[in-house]
Write a structure and sequence with these properties.
This protein is of the alpha+beta class. The protein has four domains: 102 residues, Rossmann fold; 62 residues, Dna Ligase, domain 1 (2-Layer Sandwich); 126 residues, ATP-grasp fold, B domain (D-amino Acid Aminotransferase, Chain A, domain 1, 2-Layer Sandwich), CATH 3.30.470; 89 residues, D-amino Acid Aminotransferase, Chain A, domain 1 (2-Layer Sandwich), CATH 3.30.470.20. Helices cover 28% and strands 27% of the residues. The chain contains twelve helices and 21 strands. The longest helix has 18 residues. The radius of gyration is 22 Å and the shape is globular.
Length: 440
C-alpha cells in the first residue's frame, strides 16, 4: 500500500477506493483526491489505458455477484477499502451490495435498490405522498387496458435500466393491444405502467455529504416529442418558485431512500399539479451532463465523488453560473452509413467545446430506441441559455450522416428484436440479483 506522508513520524496510508466499471475517462480523476485506486472491471469492457492509474486491478464479471463478493472481500483483507465509487449504471446495485457487505461509508444496498428499481421507488414515493403517480407493476393485458381506461395516456417501462431503453407510450385505449404485443415480443420482463406525466422535463444534479443534499444544477431536456433525449441545457430556464419546488421534491426523495453521500441524478416532469419524479440514480447524470455542470458551475461531480474518501472538499463551495452550456445529439435515418460530412464546420461554430461522431462509413445506425442509438453529439458553452441551445442546434445541423437501408434477408421478420439482444453487446443485465431485495 502506498503512503500519503508522515504524521508524527508515522506513515499514513492513502484511502483505498474501489472503482467498479468506470471508463478511462473517469478513473484518472481519482488522482485529484490523492487516493489509491482498486479497479474492478468486466474483461469485455477493460481498457489497458487505466493501468497506470490503478494500485490494484481485477478483471471479473462484477454482475456475477458471487465473484464480485469474493474478489472484494479478498481485496478488503489485503488492505481495507474505504469507499466504493461507480458512475456506471450496470454497477449500481452491486456497489450498494458490496458497500453494505463491508460495512463502509457510501450508498447502501437498500438505497441503491430503491433508486435502481423504478417500481420500488414509485411505491415508496406514493406511500410517503411525495408527488404520487398512479402505477401498476407487471399488469396483465386486461389490467393494462383497465389502467389506461382509468387514468388516460400512460407509459410502459422496465422496472430497471436507463437511457429510455424499453420505454413505450400509450396514447389511448386504441394502442393498448399493440403495446402489449410489443412487450411480449420484446421480452420486456419485469415492467410497470404509469400515468403519463405531461410538462417540461428536467433533471436535478445533486451532491450529498453525510445526508445533506446540495442541488448543484437543474438541466432542461429536449425529447423532440419522443422518449429519447436529443438535447440538454444548463441552467434550466425556470422560475425561482419552480426551482424551489423541484429542489424540495428531490431532497424529499433522497431523504426517503436514505442517500448519504455522493452524486445523484433525478429526472422530473413539471406537471400542472407540481413536479413529479420520473426516476433517480445514485450517480452523476449521463449524456455529458457532468461536462455541462463543470462548464457553467466549475464543479466536476465525478471528481467530487472521489474526494469523499480522499483529499479536498467534494464541492469546494457553490459558484455562480458562468453562462450556459448545451449538448445536442446527432441522429440519422436507420441503415448503413455511407458518409459523414460537416464535422469541421460544426467545430468552427462559435462556442463549440466538443464534437463527437460515434458512427463511421460501413457502420449501421439503428432505429432510435434508446440513448445508445444516437450517433454523436456537440457541446456548446455560451453567454445564455437561448444562445447555447441555438448554437448547439446550428453545430449539430452541420454534421450530415448519410445512410442507405439495410438489405434484409427473407428471414428478417422471423427474428424480432428483443431486450436481451440489445443488451448482449454491452455484456450487461438489468438486475444481477434476479429478484428483489427487501427495502425495509
Amino acid at each position: 500500500m502506498s503512503e500519503r506522508g508522515q504524521t508524527g513520524g508515522k506513515l499514513v496510508a492513502k484511502p483505498r477506493v474501489l472503482i467498479i466499471g468506470d471508463s478511462i475517462r473517469i478513473v484518472p480523476k481519482a488522482t485529484s483526491a490523492d487516493v489509491d485506486v482498486v479497479y474492478l472491471q468486466k474483461p469485455s469492457q477493460f481498457d489497458q489505458a487505466v493501468i497506470p492509474f490503478c494500485r490494484q486491478l481485477v478483471l471479473v464479471d462484477y454482475q456475477h455477484v458471487p465473484s464480485a463478493v469474493a474478489m472484494t472481500r479478498a481485496l478488503h483483507e489485503l488492505g481495507p477499502i474505504d469507499r466504493i465509487v461507480t458512475q456506471t449504471e450496470a454497477a449500481q446495485l452491486v456497489a450498494g451490495h458490496l458497500t453494505s457487505l463491508l460495512g463502509i461509508a457510501g450508498t447502501t444496498e437498500r438505497t441503491a435498490r430503491l433508486l435502481h428499481d423504478k417500481s420500488a421507488m414509485r411505491a415508496l414515493l406514493n406511500e410517503r405522498g411525495i408527488g404520487p403517480v398512479p402505477f401498476e407493476l407487471n399488469p396483465t393485458h386486461a389490467q393494462l387496458r383497465a389502467f389506461v381506461a382509468a387514468h388516460g395516456a400512460a407509459i410502459v417501462k422496465p422496472t430497471m435500466g436507463s437511457g429510455s431503453l424499453g420505454v413505450r407510450r400509450i396514447a389511448s385505449l386504441d394502442e393498448v393491444d399493440d403495446v402489449w404485443a410489443w412487450c411480449q415480443e420484446f421480452g420486456l420482463g419485469e415492467f410497470q405502467v404509469e400515468q403519463l406525466l405531461v410538462g417540461p422535463e428536467l433533471s436535478v444534479e445533486a451532491f450529498s455529504e453525510a445526508g445533506r443534499h446540495t442541488v448543484v444544477a437543474v438541466t432542461a431536456k429536449d425529447t423532440d416529442g419522443g422518449t429519447v433525449e436529443v438535447g440538454h441545457v444548463i441552467p434550466a430556464p425556470i422560475s425561482d418558485i419552480e426551482l424551489s419546488e423541484i429542489s424540495d421534491v428531490t431532497i424529499r426523495l433522497l431523504d426517503a431512500v436514505g442517500l448519504q453521500d455522493g452524486p445523484s441524478h433525478t429526472e422530473v416532469i413539471v406537471t400542472a399539479d407540481g413536479p413529479r419524479i420520473i426516476e433517480s440514480h445514485t450517480r452523476r447524470g449521463g449524456d455529458r451532463i457532468n461536462d455541462l455542470v463543470k462548464l457553467v458551475y466549475g464543479i466536476d461531480m465525478e471528481e467530487a465523488a472521489f474526494r469523499l474518501a480522499g483529499r479536498g472538499s467534494p464541492l469546494d463551495g457553490l459558484h455562480p453560473a458562468r453562462g450556459a452550456a448545451a449538448v445536442r445529439f446527432l441522429t440519422a435515418d436507420p441503415g448503413v452509413v455511407t458518409s459523414v460530412t460537416g464535422v469541421d464546420a460544426a467545430k468552427a461554430v462559435e462556442g463549440v467545446v466538443d464534437v463527437v461522431v460515434s458512427v463511421r462509413p460501413g457502420g449501421v445506425v439503428s432505429e432510435l430506441r434508446w440513448s445508445d442509438d444516437r450517433c454523436g453529439l456537440v457541446v456548446v458553452h455560451a453567454e445564455d441559455v437561448d444562445t447555447a441551445v441555438a448554437l448547439a442546434r446550428k453545430a449539430a445541423a452541420h454534421v450530415v450522416i448519410t445512410t442507405e437501408p439495410v438489405a434484409e434477408g427473407p428471414d428478417a421478420a422471423a427474428t424480432p428484436e428483443t431486450l436481451d439482444a440489445i443488451l448482449r453487446p454491452y455484456d450487461e443485465v438489468f438486475d444481477p440479483f434476479h429478484g428483489s431485495v427487501d427495502a425495509s
